[in-house]
Amino acid sequence: MKSPELMNRQAWPVYGQFQLDRGFRTPDPAQIHWGTPGDAGPGTGVLGDIGGKRLLDLGCGGGHYAARLARDDNAQVDAIDVAPTQHQRALIQYADVPGVRFLLGDAVDHLHRCEPYDLVYSVHGLGYLDPRHSLPALHRGLCPGRRLVFSVLHTDLHCRPPSSSVEPRQLKVQLKGLEPQDVQLWVLSPQLWEHVLTDHGFTVEAIDLLHRQAGDAVVDQLIQARRT
């Protein structure tokens, strides 16, 4: 059986290649959508004053949020993704944006060797990583007292409630235009996220549930924590 890490690494390059083959360019966003475009979340403002700060976008995909924060908020953003095709998409569209650097590689490895950041954010990237591996790396890769802001699923794509144990569940993600892709996701309850974050040296400041558009039963969590 494939490990969760291998299964997830194989899914997203397929999606990135599909977008490359179509010549798709991501529309420039006005805000960060922590759930889906059109959600009722707090947008980019939840990050606070990021002008001149060093940020890490973990699981940046096509790079649109990283480019937006560098261009419009004067942040210095490293944007990392493990999928070569996603990395290529970001470079094609945003390589000339000052203040953003696109990195190809494993985020956990990067966090263990980088200069610590002022803020790390992730839009649905951390749910694909075992928190027992990612959170020690995030603690090391953040400056003391700095913030981690990320969104994850609360109910999964089959509308099942969150888990009460730190174990992944296998799902099929329907990527537009492609056959469903098998992935492993950590879909944890807010109480469990707070527990594992606290265990790894973070203070949880807020966990908000974000409801998607009417008729969509999937719910997201937006989690704000601080390295203690």
Tell me about this structure.
The protein has 228 residues and is an alpha/beta fold. The chain is built from 6 helices and 9 strands. Strand 1, helix 2 and strand 2 form a beta-alpha-beta unit. The longest helix is centred in the first third of the chain and has 19 residues. The mean pLDDT is 93.
Q: Which value, in Å, is the CA radius of gyration?
A: 16 Å
What oligomeric state do the depicted chains represent?
A: single chain
Secondary-structure element order, as H and E? HEHEHEHEHEEEHEE
Please give the CATH class: Alpha Beta
The chain-level structural class is alpha/beta
Silhouette? globular
Largest sheet: 7 strands, mixed
How many domains? Answer: 1
Low-confidence stretches: none
- How far is the first residue's CA from the last residue's CA? 37 Å
What is the fold-level CATH name, i.e. the topology?
Rossmann fold
Strand order of the largest sheet: 3-2-1-4-5-9-8
Count of β-strands: 9
| Percentage of residues in DSSP E strands | 25-35%
Q: Counting H and I runs of at least 4 residues, what is the number of helices?
A: 6
CATH superfamily: Vaccinia Virus protein VP39
**Average pLDDT over all residues:** 93
| CATH level-two architecture | 3-Layer(aba) Sandwich
Q: Which key features would you list for this structure?
A:
30% helix; alpha/beta; Rossmann fold; two-stranded antiparallel sheet; 228 residues
Strand-helix topology:
Blueprint: H1 4-22, E1 54-58, H2 64-73, E2 76-81, H3 84-94, E3 100-104, H4 107-113, E4 117-123, H5 131-141, E5 142-153, E6 169-173, E7 181-185, H6 190-199, E8 202-211, E9 219-227
Parallel strand pairs: 1-2, 1-4, 2-3, 4-5
Antiparallel strand pairs: 5-9, 6-7, 8-9
Helix pairs in contact: 1-3, 4-5
